Amino acid sequence: MNSRTKPLLFWAGIALLVIPGLVHAYLLMPFPGSQDLNAITVAYYLEKTVNSLRFIGAALLVWYAIKYYAKNSTGHKITKALVLALCLVSFYFTDVMFKAETMFQEPQVIKFANVMTNKVPMNMVVIGVVNNGVAKAYPLVYLGYHHKIQDNVGNEPVLVTYCTMCRTGRVYSPVINGARQTFRLVGARHYNAIIEDQKTKTWWYQATGIAAVGKLKGEYLQELPYEQSTLSAWISKHPSSLILQPDTNYVQDYKDLKNYDRLQAVDKDSTIKNKDTLMRKSWVLGVIVNGQTKAYDWRQLFKKHLINDNLNKTPILVAIESDSLTFHAFNTNVNGKTLHFNLDAKGQLTDQETASIWDWDGLATAGALKGSRLTKIQAYQEYWHSWKHFHPNTLFWKN
User: Fold this and answer.
1) Using DSSP, how many helices (H) and how many strands (E) does the chain show?
2) Among 38, 257, 269, 299, which is least packed by CB within 10 angstroms?
C-alpha cells in the first residue's frame, strides 16, 4: 500500500510546508530556550529561504493530491486532510500571531503637540532628542509597544528605538552609506529587538547598533545622543519641545505597559524579601567611556542619588534627579581639574572644590565656575541580563 500511496512524498511536503516556519518563529520570538541559542545566522538565512521551502512543500503536496491521494483508504484520506488543516493553523501562529511586524506595529498616525496642547502626563518617562535647536520627546510607554519610530528632528532623520525585553532605549541615524533607510522589526535574539534595513536586508541589534548578520555584518549604525527623563524634567530644559502624542489605534497596547516606565520586576515580586538582590531584570545604569563599560545598580544609585567615580582614567558623575527616574552621566573634568559633587540642603548639585551650583544640564549657574559646562556622557538604563550579555567585559560598581 505504501508503494501505491507514496506517504513519504506527502510527509516531505508537510515538513517543508510547516517546519521552516515554526523554527523561524521559535528562533525570533521569546519562547523557552530560544533566545539563549546563538542562532541569529540560522534565523537570518531561514527567513530568506522559508517561502521557497514552503513553495517546494506545497508543490509536493499538489503533486501528491493529483497522483496518489485518491489511492488512500478513507481513514488515511481523513488523516491527511486534517494534517493539512493543521498546517493552515500553524501559518496563523508563525505568520500572524507570532510575527513581530504584526504584534508590534509602527504608529499609523505620528502626531506631536507643544506643551500647551500636550495630553501626555508630565510624569511619564520619555526619550528626548535635540537636533539643530529642535527638541522632541517620545514617551517610553508608546515606544515600548511600537519598538521604533522613524522620524525627523531638526530636519535630520532619526530612528528612535526601544526594546522592552532588554529595557534598552537607543537613537540612531537611519542613514547608511549616504542613503536614508526604512527599517522593519524582524523579531528578537538574546531578548533584544532585531531590525532590518530595507536596502541591504542586514539585521541590526537594537541594543548596540551592530550589524549582526547580512551584507553589512560588523558595521554599526551611527548612534545619536538622547536623554531619558520624565517629561516634566525634559520640558524644564526644553520648554519648546514637541511631544509625541498617543496613536488612538493602539490605546489598549499602551495600557498593557502601564507603569512599565517606573516599576522594577523586583518591586512587583512579593516573594523576594531582599529587594536589593541583583536579578536578571534588575535595572542598571550603563555608561561607556573610551570603550570601557560599567554598570551601576539602579537601586543603589537611587539611594545615593549621585556617585562620583572614575572609569578608564576619566572622572565621572552618575546621578538620578529627585523624581527618581531622570538620570545623567557627566565627565567631571573642568579646565583640567577634577570636580567632586554633592547635593546641598536644597537638593542642588554643587561641586566640593568651588561650591559652584550646577543644573541638571551640566551648566554651572552660580559660583566661581559660573558659565562652565560639564561634558555629557551617554548613559543607558537597561536590564542587567542585557547589559551583561552585550557588554561581557563590563565593570560593575559595588557600594
Assistant:
1) 11, 28
2) 38
CATH superfamily of the 270-397 domain:
Rieske [2Fe-2S] iron-sulphur domain (2.102.10.10)
Per-residue model confidence (pLDDT) at position 4: 74
DSSP state letters, 337-370:
EE--EEE-TTS-EEETTT--EE-TTSBEEESTTT
Q: CA angle, corner 348, sides to 344 and 351, nearest 5?
A: 70
d(CA 172, CA 290): 19
Instruction: Yes or no: say if 341 and 329 are a contact pair by the CB < 8 Å rule.
Output: no
Report pLDDT digits (tens) over 193-240: 999 999 999 999 999 999 999 999 999 999 999 999 999 999 999 999
Rounded to the nearest 5°, which phi and psi values hold at 348?
A: -85, 150
Q: Which residues contact 2 (CB under 8 A, 6 or more apart)?
A: none
**What are φ and ψ of residue 39, in 5° steps?**
-130, 25
- Cα torsion at 279, 253, 198, 208 (round to 10°)? -20
